[in-house]
Structure formats: C-alpha cells, structure tokens
Amino acid sequence: MASVKIRKSSCGICSSQCPLDIRVQDGKIRSVEGGKNNPFQYGGICSKGAASRQYVYNKERILYPMKRVGKKGEGKFERISWEEAFHIIKDRLNELREKYGPESVVFYAGYPKWFRPALLRFANAFGSPNYCTESSTCFQAANLAWRSIYGNNICPPDLRHTKTLLNWSKNLYHSAVDMAETYRELKDKGVTVIAVDTRNSVTAHDASLRLQPYPGTDGALALAMANVIISEKLYDREFVQKYVYGFEEYAEYVKKFSPKEAEQITGVPAEQIVQAARIFACNKPSSILFSASSIVHHINGVQNQRAVFSLLAITGNYDVDGGNVCMPGETAPRNEYGKVTRFHEIPAIGEKDYPVWFDLPCEEANCARLSEYIAGDGPYPIKGIFALGLNHRMWPQPEKLNKELETLDFYVNSDLFLSDSSKAADLVLPACSSLEREELVFRGGAWVELTQKAIEPLGESRNDIEMIIDLMKYMGLKDQVLSGTYEEYLDYILKPSGLTVKELRKHPGGMKAVNVILPERRSWEREPVHTPSGKIELKSLVMEKYRESHGIRGLPVYCEYRDAQPYRSGEYPLILNTGSRRPQWFHARMYRLPWLAQLEKAPLVQIHPSDGAGYGIREGQRVRVVSPAGSITGYAEYNIAQKQGVVHIYHGLKGADANELIPEAWKDPVSGFPGYKSYFCRIEPGDLESGMNTSEREQ
Ligand SMILES: Nc1nc2c(c(=O)[nH]1)N[C@H]1C(S)=C(S)[C@@H](COP(=O)(O)OP(=O)(O)OC[C@H]3O[C@@H](n4cnc5c(=O)[nH]c(N)nc54)[C@H](O)[C@@H]3O)O[C@H]1N2
Ligand SMILES: Nc1nc2c(c(=O)[nH]1)N[C@H]1C(S)=C(S)[C@@H](COP(=O)(O)OP(=O)(O)OC[C@H]3O[C@@H](n4cnc5c(=O)[nH]c(N)nc54)[C@H](O)[C@@H]3O)O[C@H]1N2
Ligand code: SF4
Ligand SMILES: [Mo]
C-alpha cells in the first residue's frame, strides 16, 4: 500500500470554496478535512463538505460522454467517446447557426461560477448574445438594485470597522459558513447587530435587535426607517446635498410610511422600527449585510432591495470606513463583461421584457422566461442549448421547463450527475468535481490559491474549462485567451496579480498576490458616480425611463403583493415562502448523499403551530399544500421561528418540488426574478401516516 498523502484542495459544492485537506492513498480519497494553515480560513467545513467522498464517489456520477438512444426525456443513453461527442456538438451547433442564426443557441450555466468566463467566451466566439446563467434567479437582482442607486457593482459591508451591522436577511450560519467566525466575533467587538428576517433564524437569534417582517414587505420596512431618519433629522444633510440625486421626491414619498402604517404592512412593531432607524443613523459607521436571494425573490423584490440600499445613501455610509465599501476597481465603468450583451447587433433574450437588466447592465442575457422563449414566445426561435449544470428544478413550473427542453433541436448538458434535467438532453457530458482538478481560488486579503488535484478525474470526466478549450479548437472557433492550454488560461487570469501557475504550484496553501491594489475610500469625492446624473440616485433615471412602457418607477416604491386575487379572495390565505437554506441541502443536489439525506427523511412543510391548530394539522402528519398553480404533499413540521400565516418549504425536491406551486408569470417586472418567497397557498390534512416515506427523496 502506498503512503497517505495530503493534497490541498478546495470544496466546489458552494461558492465559499472552503480549503480542504484531502488524504489520498492509492489514488483514492481516504478522508476530507478543513484545510489547515490557511490564513483566511479557520479550518472548518460544513456537513456538505464533510460528505465530499459521497459527492465524488456517488453512484449517479456520469463517467463518460453519453448520447441519447431512446426517446427524448426517456433517459436512455449510450456511451460514446469525447471525439464523437465533439463531432456531434460541432455538427449540430453549426447546423443551427446556419439555419436559424447564432442567437438560436443559448449558452447556459447553472449555479457553479468557476467556469463561467470560459462559457461566455465560447458564446461570444460562436456569435450568440445568449450567454445566461442561474443568476437570472440569484444575486443579479440585488446587484441591479444597487447599481441603479450607486452605479457600480454591489459593495460589501466593511465588517472590520463597522459599529452597526444591519443584517438584512442573510442566514449565514446556514448559507455562508465561511463568514460565520467573523460574524460571531462582531458581538465581542461591541458591534450592534440588527437582524431583519422573516424568521427568528439561528443567525438572527444572535443579533441585538430582531425585526421580523412578513415576507416581501421589506420595502415598506426600509421606507419607514427612512421616514424616521428624515423626520427626526438624523440623515447626513451635507452628504445628501452634495452627492445625492432625488432626495426631495424620496423624502416626500417616505412620508406615507410612518412606523405605525409600516407596522400594519410588515407586522413589525412601530417602536422596533423607530429603534432600528435611530441606531442605524446614529451609531455610525453603519453597514448593510445583504442576501443574494431573500429580498429579491419577490414580485416587488428589486424595489424592496432598493429601499433597503437607499438607507446607506441618506446616512452617508456609502464608501466610508465601516460602511459599505467599494472594491478596488469597482468605481470604474464596467469592463469587458459590461459590454457583453452589446457586443452583438442581435438583441439578447430578455432585452425586451427586462430592459433595465441590460441598461445597468447585468452583464448577461436574462433567461427568466427561458421556458416561454423555447415555446416560441421569444424574440426569435430558440433551438439549441449548450449547458453546464442546467437544473430545471430551480425554476417555477420545473416539469413544464423540462418538457420544453425536450422540444429543442439540440440540447447538451454537462454535469457531475445524471440529473433529471440531463435525462432530457441529446448529449450528456461528464464534468469532474473540484477535487479532480486544479483551480484558482481568490480569497480576501489578496490571497490566491491554485488548488491541487487530489485524485485523477473519475472515468472520462473532465474539467469544464479544459473541455471548452478543446471543443472550441475542434469547432475552429477563435478566442484570444482560450486558444492555448488550461494552464495558459490560468496564467492569463493571474497576470494582474503578479503570480504565475508555476509559482503557485510550489505553494500549495496559497500566496499573497504581488500586485495588490489597496482600496481607496470616499470615491464620491474624487469622481462622479456612474449614474446618469453623476450622483447617487434615490430616484433612478435609468428605471424612470421605463415608466410608460413597463410601469417601472424611479423611486423605490413599495408594491403590495397581497392585493392579488388568490389571497384577497381568502381561497389561498397563507403566504408561501420557499427555499431558505438548510445547512445540509444545496438546491437539488445533496439528496443523493446518504449522510445528508438521512438528516431529514421527508419533504417538510414548515408551519406555525397556531396554523397547525387552525387547520387541524398535527406535527408529523401528511399535509397537502395547494396553490393556484399546483399542489404537493409533504409532512408538517411545527416551527415557532416563523410567523403565523406563513408556510415554508425547501425547494428542489423531486416528487415534492415547491417550484411546482409557483406560476411562471409570478415575477418581478424589473428583474424577472420569480416570487419564490411570497406566493399563496392553503394547507389540507393528508392521511394520518406515522412513518415517513423516504423513497420520496430519491434525488
Ligand atoms: N446550505 C446551503 N447554503 C447555501 C445554498 C444552499 O442551497 N444550501 N445556496 C447558496 C445560494 S445559491 C444562495 S443565493 C445563498 C442564499 O443564502 P441567504 O442569503 O442566507 O438566503 P436564504 O437562506 O434563502 O434566506 C436567508 C434568510 O432570509 C429569510 N427570509 C425569507 N424571505 C424573506 C423576506 O421576504 N424578507 C426577509 N427580511 N427575510 C426573508 C429566511 O428566513 C432566512 O433566514 O445561499 C448559498 N448557500
Ligand atoms: N423555490 C425556490 N427556487 C429557487 C431558489 C429558492 O430560494 N426557492 N433559489 C434560487 C437560487 S438563489 C439559485 S442560485 C438557484 C440554483 O439552482 P441551480 O443552478 O439548479 O443549482 P444547483 O442544483 O446547485 O446546480 C446546478 C447543477 O450544476 C451541477 N454542477 C455542480 N458543479 C458542477 C461543475 O463543476 N460542472 C458542471 N458542469 N456542473 C456542475 C450540479 O450537479 C447541479 O445539477 O435556484 C433558484 N431556485
Ligand atoms: S460551506 Fe460547505 S459546501 Fe460550501 S464550500 Fe464550504 S464545505 Fe463546501
Ligand atoms: Mo443563489
């Protein structure tokens, strides 16, 4: 037996990319632990990372390229060589380009981020403006809200110097373990943490003050805080006068949201709103920690998020020490990425429906209506999809989307697992995990790692970027950066840092970049803000342009979603909130890992005990959740951390997917983001089974 070696890798399951120490023997992974001796990580990993061996050696891993032999969606495949796979892709994509134009092919990325720049280059070289990603449901709407006000990419809170942290709905103990230690330390340092969360989450529980609004009412809450800050003259008058546009109209608008009125809308006691506003405005510097999802997963999401972000502008907490601070280079107008959707004369999908997305710009096409565009409701026919990690379960009406995917002339998906989305494909490509490739990881403090390949890729699985490089060569597509090897591509990315792949290989734990650009604060003193007015815009001139055509307002107006008929009529009296992160789940991916699957053996429908009593549903009992769009069955779990009148279900579960309950049209008009976290339902008792059926969790 060969001796055990430790390889310095990183976990690729989520974007935290925690460093891992992998013990390897005879080419097999023996154990996985948090990476030691890493100055920017504390050596801990979450339950998902700890189950890495079950992720890598999973029985559903795809090990070879496969070609469909049965009917579409039947899931019958035959092993083929990479050469044959490339040949088919080349033939079919070129055929579609000739027949329908390059725009008929969509280049799509699921959650993983690491390969995205290469996929974008592939789309550009092919000539399609339709590079789009899972970010049509995640992060970009928050970023868009930010950009509409501050003109640059979203700025994180300066946790080192802040005195008040307004944690507006990030449940980081469950969703971003890498931040947990820093967050925990804030309290010891005397930082006042205010949590805004619809539930008393584990993270909110640690805060000094907790506000618990109804889902999707965050805009009203933030506007009421602004009401207090302005009426009590706690705002930063000098900053506002010099650097802010639209203050008068905004101040007039927030008058409607007195704390008392906001209490009616949000369910947060008026005194708490006043208290939070005073602390945020007076105990400065203050900053806001935001979520990529919870505030923007509503049909009023972008405006609610803008109302939240506006609080930084009126209190002078933008780009100052301890406030929300610009990253180096982030104040400059957008780079190569920013031009993406404008490289092409052909408009991208989503441009007509969501123009603000493109004007600000969000740097990629908007695929919120992908299913409808495939069905023929787009600007032109969509005939092919080249996807890396497409998973239909993330979208509202997932089964319908999968059926649409089956109608495409050509659909190829690369994934680690043979997911149901892959089963709808003509061609399936085997991707490898982060433990089977070298990868660049950039951490805080200008720390850069080139992770080590712990083991060789299983079967014939491949690193997606290497695959794209080879495929582009095979297709004769030219690209400045992807024409060499994977290593040359990595060196290109590293260039500004002053590091090289060769050097990093000698330092498996990582190195500090040679060229470090230190951020300079108070960018607004040196240069105009990159908005049409040159100032921070409380009234967005970009958004106001679409008032007539799309009904979009420049002010962060609050829109009451509960006015919708299904709720008002009383037929669906409960608010449906889905997808709050669970520590052991990662969208629709982790159910196949035995260690994790056993932690929660059945689909849970979380309800408040008083709703349980009101609707005659006992804890553990089977319960049917019915919405105007569909119904699913799960098991009731009483949850006192959430508000009465709200039902919460995790998403992505085959056989009980919460996304079947949400209609396609339930979308934010600015971003197209689905209203995952505030739709309507009713609950009905099912049969009184005592045992839970674990086979329901088969994916
Ligand atoms: N374990 C695990 N970690 C993950 C993921 C995963 O699937 N599993 N996914 C990753 C991804 S893609 C993302 S986007 C992030 C998201 O991670 P987070 O930003 O933490 O988002 P969530 O967990 O969806 O929600 C955070 C909190 O928002 C609250 N909330 C829900 N609706 C509302 C609302 O309308 N208003 C307010 N104020 N609060 C609300 C919930 O109660 C929850 O406690 O997590 C990432 N990390
Ligand atoms: N109801 C509801 N729906 C939601 C949400 C919600 O809160 N509620 N959240 C939304 C959000 S914020 C997000 S981000 C989306 C996420 O939704 P998805 O993008 O579907 O996320 P995942 O299922 O994590 O990943 C997609 C696929 O990528 C594959 N994959 C992983 N690593 C690699 C790799 O290196 N290469 C390749 N080729 N494939 C890989 C995985 O196996 C998986 O099948 O879901 C959205 N959907
Ligand atoms: S938080 Fe967990 S899943 Fe995410 S990278 Fe770290 S160990 Fe992996
Ligand atoms: Mo996300």
TrEMBL record:
Isomerase found in the keyword field: no
Family annotation (CDD domains): MopB_CT_Fdh-Nap-like
Ranges of residues in domain 4Fe-4S Mo/W bis-MGD-type: 4-60
The UniProt record lists the keyword Lipid metabolism: no
InterPro entries: Asp_de-COase-like_dom_sf, MoPterin_dinucl-bd_dom, Mopterin_OxRdtase, Mopterin_OxRdtase_4Fe-4S_dom, Mopterin_OxRdtase_prok_CS, MopterinOxRdtase_cofactor_BS, Prok_Mopterin_Oxidored
SMART domains assigned: Molybdop_Fe4S4
Keywords for the protein's UniProt record, in alphabetical order: 4Fe-4S, Iron, Iron-sulfur, Metal-binding, Molybdenum, Oxidoreductase
Cofactors, names only: Mo-bis(molybdopterin guanine dinucleotide)
GO molecular function: 4 iron, 4 sulfur cluster binding; metal ion binding; molybdopterin cofactor binding; oxidoreductase activity
PANTHER family, A to Z: OXIDOREDUCTASE YYAE-RELATED (PTHR43742:SF6), TRIMETHYLAMINE-N-OXIDE REDUCTASE (PTHR43742)
Family designation: Belongs to the prokaryotic molybdopterin-containing oxidoreductase family.
Record protein name field: Molybdopterin-dependent oxidoreductase
